[in-house]
Amino acid sequence: MEIRPILASLSKHRIPTVLIVLEIALTCAVLCNAVFMIGQRVSAIRLPNAIDEHSLSMVGLSGTDEKTAGSDIPRNLAALRGIPGVQAAGAISTLPLSHNNWGWSFGTSPDVSVFDKKTVNFSLFFLGEGADKALGLRLLEGRFFNADDYADSSFGSAPLPETHVTLVTHSIAERMWPGQSALGKTYYTTSHYYTVVGVIADVLRPNIDGPGEAANYYSAFFPMSAEGSKGNLRRYVLSSAPGDRDRVMRAAEQKLDELNPNGVTKSAIYSDMRDQYFADMRSMAWMLVLVCVVMLAVTAFGIVGLTSFWVGQRRQQIGIRRAVGASRSHILQYFQTENFLLSGAGVVLGMSLAYGINLYLMRHYEITRMPWYYLPVSAIALWVLGQLAVLGPALRAANVPPVVATRSA
Amino acid sequence: MFGYYLDLALRSLRRNKALTALMVLAIALGIGASMTTLTVLHVLSGDPLPGRSGSLYYPQLDPRDGHGYLPGKTEPMDQMAWIDGMNLLQAKRADRQALMTGGDAAIQPENGAFDPFYEDMRFTTAGFFPMFGVPFEYGHAWGEAEDDAHARVVVISSQLNDKVFGGGDSTGKTLRLDGSAFRVVGVIGDWHPNPNFYDLNRKNYNENEGVFLPLSTSQDLGMAHDGSVDCWGNGGSGQAPDHDSPCAWLQFWVQLDSPAKVAGYKEFLLHYAEQQKALGRFQRPPNVRLRNVMQWLAYQQVVPDDVRLQAGLAFGFLLVCLVNTVGLMLAKFLRHAGELGVRRALGASRRALFAQLLVESGVVGLVGGAGGLLLALAGLWLVRRQPAEYASLAHLDPMMLLATFLLALGASLLAGLLPAWRACQVTPALQLKSN
């Protein structure tokens, strides 16, 4: 296909040419960034979390007397374990994606301070006996806490547990001691230190940042005795078969209400809590999808409209070409090639615009660099869209009979 | 003349229904999307206390130790420590002041009338109510005397009044919180500042505190604090911050009625910080801020990033729609170049043609704007059904309604400029000949 006559013709219609190129460029730029943002949200929603999410339910209990926790918590747990269908139960301070975060910064040497640049912020989870099983934590190295660890741990006047053992996630181990085994290593803060007895598979923090951040998995676990918990073991976690969760959760809530008449209970199935956490992101992703679809439709109709106008304007020229021997497919190809060139110019401009927008967003929002493959993928999508949009008007052009050449003028 | 142009425009638009519909639809979609997101942005970045917020200030101090301090760069702390809060409160250097923090407690029935439930609360000194202009449905606020006496009094919201007492004047009734009895002295009326500027540690929007009680009383009873606690140095006691620990967990607001007083108060804060440094309590050089409500909200970036991104995206989309409309409008005007040629030949000036074509694009803009308004209403309805905490606030106000039409009209006139100019360039003779 000869493209010189197409270029010559386009240079005679500068304004419509510029408009189509501009429209495709803008669409491409917005599309790239919107699809990237959708992708970010989808991967956040799907972040893996190494606990038994589908067998877990939770009942929170508050308003009870902290002084009698040493006898209340074991009594409550015994009652919960007696509910048919409950496979494991335990008390815990917080859960992944629960928004209830207790953060603290630690370093790998004893002379650290909270504001030290080299320290790393962890989310602290306090486990009562049995909570590791109920959560379904997966051990990679070392051991879980033993009965002595639980019995020896308590809260004093500091906001950190008085114990010296800890479990850390794989991500913490990698961050603090890259390339080494974390077992037996110690991390420090001004007044406390903890030695790693076990490394577990990555568990999400109560609050997370964007996807792809290792910091999402900086969760550290500590044992905690019921009597020394100072009201921090408020959540009872239960594991059961997925089909039993609803019933188990309601029975557990009822049981805790009976045993603690002054307490206030609140229960949830863990997978609902996870959905709740991502609800905003999910609705944002759907809104982005909606905008993308509508925008593509508008662009496609714009191409149809302008090409139809062009076809109408050039009926006579088309007729002449047909009369001097061009076949229908020649005419069809002419418009398709023309659109191909216009889309090409549009996407080249659009890709650089998309990149610029991404740079701007990176500076002003919590957005990471867009991976390069979003650009060609969007470009191809717009090329295909352009070809589909032009097909209708181009076919109409191909059907212009040669006899038009002889009429009027 | 305008009537004639309008008639011509309507005729012209009617002649090519598909093209007209396409233009109207593109404008409507662009306007609908941008007005939906703009309205959400407008609502979320609004003034929580119009008329009052300009004279409300949030003093910030920096009592932390020297670690990690970058002169001129490090912002002071977002909250106050107990000692500083009490010192500033007792200094009474502002027209009004209040020290406060968030908390929660279980509301228990007197005689098993309802299941106990948790309610968000505000522990505050008496200055809160007159300073923020809180309206009362029944009763009144407590005063400084009650603060000093650690009195067991509460002010409740009208929702809680309905829930616990079934509405009506409940002053004098007893409310049980965490096992202690409190006397209701006031029921506040319709008062929902959004964003919840005075404490951004829990929810930024639609915070619904049911109970307000004296800060001194809450500390006597050891009621649970709810919000963020920032500690430094060797930290403090975690969830229940005590008064001597190096932790900031209170909000302190002042009312300053004139610029001179604002300058004076800033001076006072600097002086206070210097004095504390001399005493050895503060270690950093004086690092203070005094922001008013809107400055504080901007500094805290209270409007969610997603909302701003959505607005940006919607404007990108509107731009696509506009470029699209420019193209279609151009096609439409040039298709009727013949008629324009006739009008020119009969004596119409270029200016007259231009005006006529702009009237035509204005009509498209108005119809598109009406369509956009319907789409924006539908969009806002969708937003209200979302799980976000601000969802229920998304309503169109008269200002945004007006803005919608101005935006639609402006956008379509802008989109009409280039095509109209291009169409006016037609040479009458050429057009007449070719027909």
Q: Please give the count of helices of chain B.
A: 14
- Give the termini separation of chain A: 29 Å
Assembly level: heterodimer
Overall mean pLDDT of chain B: 88
Q: What does this entry show, briefly?
A:
With 409 residues, chain A is of the alpha+beta class. Chain A has helices spanning 4-12, 14-45, 69-81, 131-135, 147-152, 170-176, 245-259, 270-313, 315-323, 328-364, 374-398, and strands at residues 56-62, 88-92, 103-106, 120-127, 139-142, 154-155, 161-162, 165-169, 186-188, 193-200, 219-223, 235-239, 264-269. Chain A folds into 2 domains: 4-46 and 280-406, no CATH class; 64-262, no CATH class.
What do these coordinates show?
The complex is a heterodimer of chains A (409) and B (435). Chain A is an alpha+beta fold and 409 residues long. Chain A has two domains: 170 residues, no CATH class; 199 residues, no CATH class. In chain A, 49% of the residues lie in helices and 16% in strands. Chain A contains eleven helices and 13 strands. In chain A, the strands form three sheets. In chain A, strands 3, 4, 5, 8, 9, 10 and 11 form a seven-stranded mixed β-sheet that branches. A four-stranded antiparallel β-sheet of chain A has the order 2-12-1-13. A two-stranded antiparallel sheet of chain A has the order 6-7. In chain A, a hairpin with a 5-residue loop joins strand 6 and strand 7. In chain A, helix 8 runs parallel beside helix 11. The radius of gyration of chain A is 32 Å and the shape is elongated. The two termini of chain A are 29 Å apart. Chain B has 435 residues and is an alpha+beta fold. In chain B, 49% of the residues lie in helices and 16% in strands. Chain B has 14 helices and 13 strands. In chain B, helix 1 packs across helix 12. Chain B is elongated. The mean pLDDT of chain B is 88. The interface between A and B is large, with 57 and 53 residues.
